[in-house]
Design brief:
Radius of gyration: 21 Å
Largest sheet: 3 strands, antiparallel
Structural class: mainly alpha
CATH architecture of the domain at 51-161: Orthogonal Bundle
Number of helices: 8
Strand content: 5-15%
CATH class of the domain at 51-161: Mainly Alpha
CATH superfamily of the domain at 51-161: Winged helix-like DNA-binding domain superfamily/Winged helix DNA-binding domain
Distance between the termini: 38 Å
CATH topology of the domain at 51-161: Arc Repressor Mutant, subunit A
Number of strands: 3
Length: 180
């Protein structure tokens, strides 16, 4: 009887290890956290600077990277090439990025953050840091270290997933891959 009661207790471990629905699943819960915290960041970025979440991510990456090409930027930002291209074009129009064409190969362009882009990044970063600190203040310094370690291990595990093992739906033809 005691074992049965312990198994039915609603602890985070039980929810994560034995999810009963989407609300108990780790990826969903992480996404909910990102949506709430990221939503505040997005509102600030859009309201104060007129930049989108994708544009913020690209600015943040380019603030720490040397000059980079578009495909490497897309990979680092976890964006599709078309989404990256759209965000880069918008940031170029806003004067927050610079594009330099390789004189040896005109098809290769390198992208870097402009002085204005760096200024915008440096204005946004403290707010993003405050939002992160606010979310993390509910756990101790030791728990933060442990969380950081766990996130690193989980990221390494997630990186091992091979998307090619899962079928793609043909969305252009409106097909669904439902097996009944």
């Amino acid at each position: 009887m005691k074992t049965l009661i312990n198994e039915n207790l609603e602890s985070p471990f039980n929810k994560l290890s034995r999810p009963r629905g989407i609300q108990d699943m780790f990826l969903y819960r992480i996404n909910q956290l990102r949506a709430k915290g990221g939503g505040v960041v997005l509102r600030y970025c859009e309201g104060e600077f007129g930049i989108t979440r994708r544009e913020w991510v690209i600015l943040a990456i380019l603030s720490t990277e040397e000059v980079i090409n578009s495909s490497a930027l897309a990979s680092l930002a976890e964006l599709t090439p078309p989404a990256t291209s759209k965000a880069v074009s918008s940031l170029l129009t806003k004067g927050l990025l610079e594009r330099n064409v390789d004189p040896q190969n005109r098809r290769v362009a390198r992208i870097n953050i402009s002085k204005s882009g760096k200024d915008v990044y440096e204005q946004i970063l403290p707010i993003v840091i405050l939002i992160n600190k606010y979310i993390l203040e509910t756990i101790s310094k030791d728990e933060i270290k442990l969380l950081d370690s766990m996130l690193e291990r989980m990221q390494k595990q997630a990186n091992k997933l091979d998307m090619r093992e899962f079928p793609l739906a043909n969305r252009r033809k409106g097909s669904l891959r439902i097996k009944l």
